[in-house]
Amino acid sequence: MLVLDEPRIRDLLRLDALIVAMERALVDFSAGRVTQPVRTIIPTSVPGALFGIMPAVYGDVLGAKLVTVYPDNGTRGLPTHLASILLFRAATGEPIAVMDGRLITEVRTAAVSAAATKALARHDARVLAILGTGVQARAHVRALRLVRSFDEVRVWGRRPDRARAFADEMDARPMAAEAAVRGADVVVTATGAPEPVLQGRWLSDGALVNAVGAVGATRRELDTDAMSGGVIVDSRDAAMQESGDILLAKASISAELGEILGGTRPAPRARITVFKSLGLAVEDLATARLLYEAATGHAP
After folding, report:
1. Rounded to whole angstroms, how far apart are CA atoms 137 and 155?
2. What is the pLDDT of residues 92-126, one digit of tens each?
3. CA dist 278 → 93, 164, 172, 216 (Å)
4. ∠ CA(108), CA(116), CA(114), 5° rounding?
5. Which of 74, 247, 250, 262 has the fewest Cβ atoms surrounding its Cβ within 10 A?
6. For residues 299 and 197, what is the distance between their CA atoms, to the nearest angstrom?
7. CA distances from 57 to 32, 108, 181, 284 (A)
8. Domains of the chain by range and CATH?
9. In contact, 230 and 268? CB cutoff 8 Å
């Protein structure tokens, strides 16, 4: 059985190929070609920490991601999100691979946002605003630069020292949240905030927001005004259970991203478009399959 740790995954993973794989997986999901329940999330013995179970059957593979979220891990020098992905051959049920899931989660999330940006952002988008300074913020800058030519990247973080470090590393400009968002063509919210960090009145006409934080029915990164335009999701079922951004704003869902990518629904015409990404097991399986092929030279 193939075992891939994070350094080996980093060597094998190609972001441009992953974006294409995420587009295909989302189209297949929305077309009903994936068997996948909404993930199960259970509390652990540590207050505030969660354990998630994300199974799916997708084409010639099936499997699951087991993910933990421990918000206080940063104080221990550990990632807050850790995971393992188990991959099986669908035809026989044979286990064929075990992969570290931390980097896979980081990069596939950004690749999905890149797919959304490619489909929904203005072709002449030039200014990118990032709210957040963690691993997802960095991954999103790298991924979104592959699908749009940004002249300027702006960043805001709660801690100015981290925002300055992020800016130095990613060739960005640190600034206040409102200043970063005003005039931006594409905005990414990648924070651990339980309350809105983005206000709709800051957003320019035609802006696209990729909202990737605030998983949970009581957490939100965007205020109600920001959610009043066109809202795209990765999964309707998941959004109606797990997205406080949608539930607390009582926002209407225009389409799943896979429906837009597959041509079965049009992109919304609204002053603001929000893509609310919660993360799907099929995205993890599609990434694991891509890595399996890269490592072995053949399909599962």
Report:
1. 9
2. 999 999 999 999 999 999 999 999 999 999 999 99
3. 28, 28, 26, 9
4. 45
5. 250
6. 43
7. 11, 18, 39, 11
8. 2-104+281-296 (3.30.1780.10), 122-276 (3.40.50.720)
9. yes
